[in-house]
UniProtKB/TrEMBL annotation:
RCC repeats, residue ranges: 25-81, 127-177
PANTHER family: PROTEIN RCC2
Protein known as: Uncharacterized protein
SUPFAM superfamilies documented for this protein: RCC1/BLIP-II
Xref: Pfam families: RCC1, RCC1_2
First and last residue of the signal peptide: none
Molecular-function annotations in GO: small GTPase binding
Gene Ontology cellular component list: membrane
Amino acid sequence: AALTGRKITKVASGHNHTIAVDDQGKFHTWGFGGYGRLGHKVQKDEWTPKMVEIQGGDRNLCPPDCVVSAGQTTSWVTAVQGQMYCFGRLKTTGDNTMYPVPFMDLQGWRLRSVACGATTYAACGEDQTITWGQGAGCGELGYGPKGSKSSANPKLVESLGGKHVIQVACGVGHTLF
């Protein structure tokens, strides 16, 4: 099997797929390959773990403090130098990303946690927490009762300003900070 003899250091499970990071800094995905959420450049289901490659050299390594998250249709992982990569279906409309691509909106953030919900996302780092996504009719973005129900770009959750959020988690219709 693909992970035999390897120590798994991180795991994230999404709606129909799983990501595992091994002690060599490589990450592997398996499950339902729809929308490109496995990052293997094709929409093909994988019944056993398969290594995902990030284009270009040492960026293929996930540091020991890497952040991984799997959502309904997407996957997220940080590689060396903290660059966040995403793949899968990032919006309810539009193209799918079939392989890991840099998510530039989070460049420069020292992330502690990233979470994927059904159509929303949350991240925390330093003393700021941000959320973004579409169709957040239950307040899962944390913008308050009169706040926006969607945000195409990461936006600061002002009510958490200055708070030291350690971890975020998203589900269908809710977010935990």
